[in-house]
Amino acid sequence: MVSLQPVSIFRPGAEEEKGETARLSAFVGAIAIGDLIKSTLGPKGMDKILQSMDPHKGIQVTNDGATILKAIGVDNPAAKVLVDISKVQDDEVGDGTTSVTVLACELLREAELLIGQKLHPQTIIAGWRRSSDEAVRALTAAAVDNSSNPEKFREDLMNIARTTLSSKILTQQKDQFSKLAVDAVMRLKGSCNLEAIQIIKKLGGRLSDSYLDEGFLLDKKVGVNQPKRIEKARILIANTAMDADKIKVFGSRVKVDSVAKVAELELAEKEKMKEKVNKILKHNCTVFINRQLIYNYPEQLFADAGVMAIEHADFEGVERLALVTGEKIRQ
Fold it and tell me: Does an H or E element contain 288, and which?
């Protein structure tokens, strides 16, 4: 005989919600997320203290919506959608993470009341879409384009920066950091590539000690006995091995008849490195920046040629330097 018993397709312990129960659960989860971060919104918003379960991560104090939502564990599907909205806002815009989450939460809160009045969900969604179109139309009509007037355009950017920083920890120095941000963006000369803006963090000092440098900062030291200052520099950015010396030779397995043979190997390695340095110098560069190490012998050759050599430059710094100089990294 064929059994007519229902077959369970869920894992043991899994729960299934249907109809009104599932809809109510979605509303409750999403509204709870909005209520959680609502108190962090605006200039009067309060910070949240986040304590990780990992003892090595310690305690974090923040009022950033995306940071808070990333740190909490969410099981409710509707709540996860709000968390994803905040992440997308953070990736695409970098600000307004709390605002979009609270706005979506309030829309769902009002939708719950409409559902209780027996309105169909598709009718509510259609109303939201019409409202969105009307909001875009109203914003477009109210928008002002001051790009042709540099002074008014800069003042608009300053107002935007001040508004953004009003709810951050920098609110006490928002005028200073607004000026730093606007000056940095204005130097891009219309480019939207924010990778050209580098932020270097240093321990100690105060927030008011922050400044925008006129040039490009690469946080590395110059080689020994090399020039510390070069004007109208010709920069060569490379990613090549400059570490062939006696350490590399003694680290290899080479069978020789005498110690003199080892000296010959070292000399051959030095001659090979000297040829490589001469090829670099033929490019008529005055500054050589390498992503890899530069050992003592090639460093000495660069010093003798009066070339500033910087070793082990980080990838992001080298990429950004190539970007701002309009050149490519030579392999």
Answer: strand 287-290
